[in-house]
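Subject: sequence -> structure tokens, single chain

Hey, anyone have a minute? Need the predicted structure for the following. Not urgent.
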Amino acid sequence: MNAAGLPDPTVVRPVEGVASIAYLAPLAEGRPNVSVGAFTYVHDPVDPTRFFEDRVRHHYPHMGDRLEIGRFCAIAEGALFVMNGANHLRGGTTYPFEIFPGWDAEDDRSQWADVSKGDTAVGHDVWIGAWATILPGVTIGPGAIVGAHAVVGADVPPYAVVAGNPARRVRQRFGTGSVERLLAIAWWDWPVDRIRANLPAIRAADLEVLEAAA
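Reply:
Had a minute. Here:
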């Protein structure tokens, strides 16, 4: 907690005595093409502080793609983000001759734009289950749930539950009208003290109370 007794999003390990949980925002500081919102955490029993080294793959500067993760997301053990650097050039062969010595193959970085699927974006309040894989260029909407071991290769609507390989929508957490109201409320953007004061309504999706508090 900070000096005001409120949760502190700037600490790396927010739960005293629990080494398997880390906030990602402070770990993302100074990393190019990465942004993570406050209070988003990862659980990893080995070392959660190595999330960007171990769980974000093929994120090369020359590709220029961004990884953006919102506030209040929960990322489970083994979840993997595959970025655009994993793609291979198209043509008569997909073999990357240009990265190996001795072939004298031209390494034209401008060609990589042709295989980029764009930025990867995870909205606020998203739960990504254990060992799920997020493929390049995917947008996951706020409030979504990604099931364990899912392979997400297409955009996920807000407050959808997806599972499987390839991941498909299993259901919506709320009806269309409620989703629109929740997105308008956007409680994740509130000051921390207001969130804490309204936690029962947030957890119960009490829209009337939340709209009055917004």
